[in-house]
Amino acid sequence: MALSATIKTPLVSFTQPLGLYIDGQWVRGQSGQTFETINPATEEVVAAVHEATAEDIDLAVNAARRAFRNGWSTTAPTERGKLLLKLAELVESHIEVLSAIESLDNGKPLKLARSDVLSAASCLRYYGGWADKVHGQTIDTDPSFLNYTRHEPIGVCGQIIPWNFPFLMWAWKIGPALATGNTVVLKTAEQTPLSGLYGALLCHEAGVPPGVVNVVVSGFGAVAGAAIAAHMDVDKIAFTGSTLVGRRILEASAKSNLKKVTLELGGKSPNIVFDDADVERAVDWVNNGIYFNHGQCCCAGSRIYVQEGIYDAFIKAFKKRAAANVVGDPFDENTFQGPQISQLQFDRIMGYIKSGREQGATVEVGGQRHGEEGSGFFIQPTIFSNVTPGMKIMQEEIFGPVCAVQRFSTEEEVVRMGNDSIYGLAAGIHTTNVSRAIRVANALHAGTVWINNYNSLSPQVPFGGFKQSGIGRELGEYALSNYTQVKAVRMLLD
Ligand code: ADP
C-alpha cells in the first residue's frame, strides 16, 4: 500500500503521509498491516495507514537512541530552540491543512481545529524559547568543594497521545522533550493518526535530524503502545489518556526498566456557580466547560453545582444555551459541536445517559442521538438534574456532551461535594466575591482551578492532575523537570 495519498476536504486538498516515520524516513510497518481511519461525521473511511507493531517500535527506539547519542543530546541548546521555532512557523503556515485533517479525522469543528493548531504552534514556540534557559545551580557547601548541578536530558522518551486533541497533544509532548535534548518515539491514537503523521512531515522540513522525532506509529494501544511502555530501552514515558491505561503504563514501567512515568489521565471536574455570579456569564462558561470539544476533554466540567438562590434562573438559562449549541458538520464554520469520535464512544455515552435515567435523574435537555443513525456519531447536548452524588453519571467520566447539575446551599457543602471524586484534574468557580473565590480555589483538590472562566489553557501555565488524574505536569516551566534529570557534581579543590 502507498505511503501517501491525496485527500480532498471542503477546505483544502493535500498529500497525507500514511507510513511510519522512523529515523527520518517514511516506511511501511514490519507486519505489512494497515488499518482504516474513519471520519466520525460521516462514518466513511478517510484513509488506511500503516500499522506499527512491536518490531517497528524496536526500530524506532533504536533510531531514537542513536540520535540521542550521536548528537541531539549535545546539540547546542540554542540550535535546538531554533529548530522548534522553525517547526512552530511551519505549523502556523500549514494551519489550513492541519485544521482540515483534525476536522476530517477527529470531527472537530473547523474553528476549534484552527485554535488547536495555533495553540500547538504557541506551545512549540514557547519551548523553543526555553531550550537555552534550562540550567542548574552552584551550591556552596564549604570552601574545599565546588558543587554544581546539571539538568540533563533523560534519553529516549516514549510518548503516547489520545484522540481528543490529536495535534495539540503532539505539540505538548514534542515541545518540552526536544527543547531539553531528548529524542522521541511518539504513538498517535489509532482513531486519529493523520495529524501526527503530517506533523512528522513538518519536522522533516524543519530539519529535525533523523531519529530525533519518530512519529510514528499509528499502532494500536495494546500492541504498539504496550510495546513502548514495556520497552527496556525507553527511558521515560509520557502518556495522555484514560486512567485505566495509565495504570497499565505504570505497571509496565514497574515490570520493565522503571522508566520514568508522567500521566495525564481522566477527570470528573466540578464547576461551581455561587449565588453572586452573573448568571449569563456563568452559563456561557459552564456551557463551554462541558460542551467544548463535544465533552471529550479530560478536564470537562461535568459536575455542575449551583447555589440554591440562583438555581432556577441558572437552569432555565443553561437549558436555553445548551439547546442552542449548533451540532453538525465540522466543516461548517458555524458548527460548535461535532460528532463523538467513534461508535464505541457513542455507545458508551448513550449507556451513561441510559444509566442516568434508570437511576432516577431528570433529563432537562437532550438525551438522544442527533441526526440519523449511520450518518455520524452525533449526540445532543445533554443536561441532567435531580442527581445524587452516588449516581454513576456523577462519579464516572462520561467523555461526552453530558453533564449533571446539582443544587447546594453552603460554601462548605460544595467544597465537600466538589472533592467527592477519585479524580482531581480541574475545577471551576463562578463568583464575584474575591475572598470566596480564593478560599474555595485553595480548598478544591484539583490541578487547575478556573475562576470565572473554564477550559482556558496557555503554554506558560502548568496542567495536570491531583489524585487519580495523573502524575506530573505538562506545560509551563514545570514540564521541563519531567524531561530532565538532575546530576550533582562535587569537585574537591586542591
Ligand atoms: P480512550 O479510552 O479514550 O481511547 P485510551 O487510554 O485507551 O483512551 O487511549 C489513549 C492512548 O493510549 C491511545 O494512543 C491508545 O492507543 C493508547 N493505549 C491504549 N491501550 C494501551 C496500552 N495497553 N498500552 C499503551 N498504550 C495504550
Automatic annotation (TrEMBL):
InterPro entries: Ald_DH/histidinol_DH, Ald_DH_C, Ald_DH_CS_CYS, Ald_DH_CS_GLU, Ald_DH_N, Aldehyde_DH_dom. It catalyses: an aldehyde + NAD(+) + H2O = a carboxylate + NADH + 2 H(+). SUPFAM superfamilies: ALDH-like. Residues 26-489 form the Aldehyde dehydrogenase domain. The active site is at E264. Keywords: Oxidoreductase. Its EC number is 1.2.1.3. It holds the Pfam family Aldedh. Belongs to the aldehyde dehydrogenase family. This is aldehyde dehydrogenase (NAD(+)). It comes from Aspergillus keveii.
